[in-house]
Amino acid sequence: MPGKTQRISYLPSRKGSSYFKAPLISDVFPPRIWLLRKATGNRKFRERRVQPVAPWRRCTKGSRGGSGGRFLKKLNFTYRCNMGVKGLHSFVTNDCPGACTAANLKVVAEEHRSKYPGSTPVLVVDAMCCIRKWYTANSWVCGGQWREYLSVLDRFINTFKAAGIKLVFYFDGLVEPKKRSEWVRRRLDNGKEIAKIFRFIKTYKQQPGREMFFIPSGLATFARSALRTLGQETICSLREADYEVASYALHNNCMGILAEDTDYLIFDTAPYFSVKELHLDSLDTVMFSRQNLCSRLGLHPTDLPLLACILGTYIVPEKVMRRFRNQCVASYCAKSQGSNQRSSMILAVANYISSISRSYGSLIALAETLPLESDKSLLCSGIESYLLPGQQSPWLPCDFSHCSVASIEQEVPLCLDQEILQIAKEKFVRAESRAYAFMCSGEDECSNTLEDEDDTELPGQALIFLPARQHIYSLLLESAKDVNGTYPVVKEWFVYAGNSLKQPDLVQPKELPGGTPSLRSLWLSSGPETEKLRHWTFLACFQLQEIAEEIQALEASVAVVCCLLLYLFLQVDSLSLEDLNAFLAQTLCLEGKSAAQLANLQLDQVDSRGVQLGSLFIRGLALMIKANNTCGLPFKADDIMAWSVFDGNLFHMKYLQAHRGCSLHDLLEGNESWLAKFQDLMSLICKTCSARGRIIQSRQRLDSFVTERQGRGRGLSNIEPQSCIYSPRVPSPGFLPPVVTTIGQAFQGKR
């Protein structure tokens, strides 16, 4: 459970009784986070000594518990969709057949047009309930099949367009403080399932079956961008997404809501259709009937919010009403029993509600049965959270104020420039940028990605990108500095190995080299100088401002990849020349390949480290989108999209080839026109890294093989990818950085 945020001032040293100071996490884990690991010879000693703060410390096998993927299948099947009322979906599908009726969305649309002549039927889509359904690609562990994903979305949209149905997509805009504990629980559970995935990959050298499916990193981020790219109205909610979806559907006279969340049965809004049961070819699905549910339970629609609260919601936790539910079951004597204990309990609670007067007084009496330590206003707040604008409830007084639905706008914003804040808000609502939520709350978050906690070579992805995030934070909070020029501390909820998420990490924003420009100069100005400033600022976020001219000379999408690879290879010492060859070859070979061609690529095996690198690259792209938006769009949005620069299958194929020592001819698929580009990019990256003391070494990790095509092609046969085009002086073989006694000393002067 998330607790009160604390700063740890001192941590005990492993040797003797001395102490070393542990400042904010941004000081504990600065850019070259691998140096301490090199300098410390005894791994066990290192882990014990820095365990309180070291995120690369790996959990033991015994800490993950369970076997197989059974729990993951249950947990991940509907993604956010089980955030609704506890047990209601099972009851509706198993014990209330009248509440589940077959529906054809084409027919529903025609009926809507007949009822409202001249209007276009609108279906509101809760996108977070759909992103898993949209990802139909067979490959999901290698980083994502993004062109295939884009084509699936295009087909989805065109199917509804052909039926004359307009789609409006909603995405979650925030995690409410009251939902943080549930968010944390899910992240920790997901971590256990990711560990199972990697155990499977390392054992069988193959991708697990679909029952262990885990969404690729960045799926929600790129889904928002994809829908905008495809011309769809895409909205990011300023409050709970299901509340805004229900409100939009009601007040815009929409034909229905497409989702998988039982909260839409509780809201008094437009009809609710199942995305899980949707057959896209025919547009057949299931409609959940609010009226039939009420008939089965003997309740009025205005009673449903109270039913939801007693069963358990995110406002009224399930455990708070457990004793009362048991009392209802004990006193419930009826012939109509449910198919299981949970269903019988729902019928018992409904029977109780129907037996009391529908009034505020009855609710007050019910609130008195709550445990002594519970907030007596929970039931009022829970019911009110289901009331859409203009609606009233007989269970609440007429003058009850609408205040319980959390909203970003309720925050006291950290950004003090109101014009900039308004621009950020408009971009946020249009799902162009999520900066507004951060500028209001000062909190940032990121969920799980496919990274192996047992891999001690690769640091946590969240920590690899920490220095870049610190610079982005300084841009967004530039107007929030105090009189001493100090930034407010940022609270980060980021998943990485060893982080229990009991409290947020405290991160200090860091000025850009040479000073941090204001958002006014980046967002509101124009002209050549402004464009130059935007590019410089973007590169400075990734500490690449010194090579601005070289980067700007590249094709935009290639420049994006080059920036990301430079950042990664400067941050992560264990990345090898083979890794760089694979990334560059993937970038060049992606050109001209269709979604179908990429989907048909066959991998003879799956390598766990290659899986992590694919996920790492995509996570980096997501951060570059954030930086690009913050800096005023120095790059076109499409240039940073995953489908423009990355394909998981293709990268993994290149990774396997590079680490088996195949020729450059085969790595570049025999295309000699890509050779010069490959050499130029390799030279730029190696030269830049060398200038900062980072020598990219060769380290082949897989068994070598000789391909049939080796030696073909003019000018390629004798070039091996193990040779760095730029060859700076290599340090002496015995070189190691000096042994340090504190974490802070490991990074002094290391940039």
From TrEMBL:
A single GO BP: peroxisome proliferator activated receptor signaling pathway
Cellular compartments per GO CC: nucleus
Entry keyword set: Activator, Differentiation, Nucleus, Transcription, Transcription regulation
InterPro entries for this protein: Coact_PPARg, PIN-like_dom_sf
SUPFAM superfamilies in the cross-refs: PIN domain-like (SSF88723)
Subunit note: Interacts with ESR1 and RXRA. Interacts with PPARG; in a ligand-independent manner.
Family membership: Belongs to the constitutive coactivator of PPAR-gamma family.
UniProt protein name: Constitutive coactivator of peroxisome proliferator-activated receptor gamma
